[in-house]
Amino acid sequence: MSISNYTVILLLLAVHFSIQRSTPDSPTYRAAVVEYGPTEYHDDYQRTMDESAEKYTQYIREAAKKDVDIIVFPEGGLNMLHFPLRSEASYRATFIPNPSEKVIPCINESIAVIGALKKLSCVARENQIYIALNILEKEECGGSHCSSDGLLVYLSNVVIDRNGAIVLRSRKNHQFDVMAWFNSTETIELSMFESDFGVTFGSFVCYDIMFESPPFNLTRQFNITDFVYPGGWFLGLPFTSTVQMQSGWAYAEDVNLIASGYNRVSTGHSGSGIFAGRRGILTAVQPLEPCNEMLIADVPKINRANTSKQIQQRQREDHPGISNTDVIRRKQYRRSSDFEHLVRGIENFENYTTKVISQVGYSEETLTTNNVTCDFKVNLTHFDYPITYRIVAYDDIHVANAKNILGISTCAIIQCVNETLESCGHFEEISTMFDFIEVEATYAVDENVFFAPNTLATDMLPIEGWTFDSHIRNGKYTASIFLTAPVQNLVTFGVRGRIFVRDQITI
């Protein structure tokens, strides 16, 4: 091939990539998330990583053909969530260069990073795409806090840019499992990077989303509006299934959350989506069976003035719902067998204040517990016995594990399969119809409080057609959610809050 012909080909490639990329002036950028569960070879850890890196490569190439700017893979996707013993970490984890150095592992042979990271650096470079992934990281250390091998080991997010350079490293701060031996940084690190299409992204790992830091440091101090979020979320009912919780968090903070989930339903892990703040859900999936799939959406950029408010007040506005039900894989699960492979946690309602909704028609009730007052207005047009609904209120601590005791506050309507409290959190598809619901939580103080909308239907996805409002008035924090269209198959409808001053956290 002549030099002139080769030059023409390079120019054509450059034109192609310049067309497909979003720019700082573009109103949107294109994102992809992969719902993914690796083939887990517990006796051959390297094989799991090599196969995952190859599958990642296939998704990346497919995404690049569809003009995706950034693709996100889940927590544990390369390494699997069945983590190795601490004694094995020295050869299964990798060193990660400081993002400020913008090292390109693909072309820098002197950098001691694991083979999968080198490979994906090259794939990002070849396909001119941002890649966000999660990997075991090791770091040399000294002093009494170090292990005998002289290493700290983190579960870290990494972002690779279009040139193959590492531009972000985000270490997990909060471990869900008390048995997890991963280290956390002595002080919270705030991780962010600026893309070439004019969006600055923040990042944190899975369970970190439940805490004040780092998420709210990023949203409220640095005004970060977009997040890459690899997760391996464990399903909880009726308040913390994956898409339900993540979409509510993104909506309340009015940020874009690009969330990729680990798929292993046999241990309760599934759910991915692209959530556009107050614009609602762009695409999401909550599988009840093993699957690997990629979701793509054009994400509207968010522009707003900087703010350092502790609580960002939002005006009431219509929730757009989900305009394309095919996009979120909305299904109806009518048989109990649909859930037979799905492991999930069920909330214990023993310490909740509750009352059964006992009549068809309009009713108003108030429940008060500790610092929260829950006001309910409900209009029921039909009951489908023996299924019942309860209004519930809670304001206390929740013992997640020995490392994390969290302040939780909840006002909600929940489905129960009969009149016993033990049946709440389980659900069935039913014909009970709600024409109207209003749930309002009034909290006695206004500092270190965060409430989000919390809704769920029997297909394990959020309900459509509601509005949400939060504000501070007379030293009290109020959050309200209103149903704007009749709904059947309701599992959960209300608001759920975090009271950060009650947290007892061991890092």
Number of continuous helical runs: 6
Shape summary: globular
Low-confidence stretches: 1-19, 306-326
- Strand order within the widest beta sheet: 5-4-3-2-1-13
Class computed from helices, strands and strand pairing: alpha+beta
Oligomer: single chain
- Which percent range describes the beta-strand content? 35-45%
List keywords for this structure.
alpha+beta, globular, disordered N terminus, single chain, about 500 residues, 26 strands, 6-stranded mixed beta sheet, about 35% strand
Short description:
This protein has 507 residues and is an alpha+beta fold. 15% of the residues lie in helices and 36% in strands. It has helices at 3-20, 45-65, 89-92, 115-127, 215-221, 242-253, and strands spanning 28-35, 70-72, 130-140, 151-160, 166-171, 191-194, 200-203, 226-231, 236-237, 256-261, 272-276, 281-285, 293-300, 314-318, 345-346, 353-356, 361-369, 372-382, 388-401, 404-416, 433-443, 449-457, 466-473, 476-483, 490-499, 504-505.
